[in-house]
Amino acid sequence: MIPNPPDGRAGIDAALVKRLVSAQFPQWSELPVTPVEVDGWDNRTYRLGDGMTARLPTAAGYVPAVAKENDWLPRLAPALPVAVPRILGRGVPGEGYPYPWSVRGWLPGETAASAGIPDMPRFAASVAGFLLALQRCDATGGPLAGPHSWYRGASPAHYDEETRDCLSALEGRVDTARARAVWEAALRAPWRGAPVWFHGDVAVGNLLVRSGELTAVIDFGTSGVGDPACDLVIAWGFFSGAGRAAFREAVGQDDATWARARGWALWKSLLVLSRAVDSDPDLAALNRHVLEEVLADHEEFG
Q: Do residues 91 and 20 make contact, with C-beta atoms less than 8 angstroms apart?
């Protein structure tokens, strides 16, 4: 996991972005700079006028994603069924800011976390369609899963020690016997296919919606080429009932891939739960729910 950058976020503000834009992209220097309503942790994003954004990584660990997205998003975009960020400018360190950064086109829409989605099975199928289109993209020369993707797209075994530590820490507070069974099943199901493109963080905050329809996918910072199992975690993190069934049917994937996907979901829910169980009841409850859904799914389909 990436440590929280203690000073990185605090050092980025609209005034800094204004100085960077004025120095490096003077054609846009008169445009207003305003924070976006929903921001992430890995990067700070600011509106630049009405049609662009400036996106700045908050810590050194997030820097490899800048060049990766700048280089690969334009190549992937034509093959994808929904919009992805357009790269309009490549910023360099300056004005006291130490990292490369980028200017992108603004993508309208609400995140799936906050949008009304009246037909969840249809929406789930569209997310599956995006993932399948991404997997069909030419992976030649693509960035193989590794540190730049925080090992999304690699084997969940990379997080074996951390997962087992979480299980030990949560002994008596969750059903660790059932959870261990899910984890062991994931480790027994290695990826044997040809590497394909994966997004790495298919979460509700990275899916943009307009009028109930998926219109864009953002934040390819953990993307790469490898095992697509990590992209199925949304099956339990967001979908349920008919939506989950529609996603499972539309996205396909073999039993082994679903086993690894459950492993990814288990790792994340245990990690967050181990940190939140005594400090954040709401976050703990959310991750308990995901954990229970994963356990039940393993017992039904594993």
A: yes
Please report the pLDDT score of residue 1 as a whole number.
35
Closest CA to 220 of 115, 91, 5, 67: 67
pLDDT range class, residue 41, cuts 50, 70, 90: confident
- Which stretches within the chain are classed as H helix? 14-24, 64-76, 120-136, 160-169, 176-187, 234-237, 241-251, 255-276, 281-301
pLDDT in tens, 80-100: 999 999 999 999 999 999 999
Q: Topology of 14-105 in CATH?
A: Phosphorylase Kinase; domain 1 (3.30.200)
Q: Record the pTM.
A: 0.92
CATH of domain 111-301: 3.90.1200.10
DSSP state of 221: T
Q: Which tokens hold the place of 111?
A: 């995140």
Residues 266 and 163: beta-carbon distance below 8 Å: yes
**Which residue matches tokens 């005034």?**
15
Residue keyed to tokens 């261990």: 180
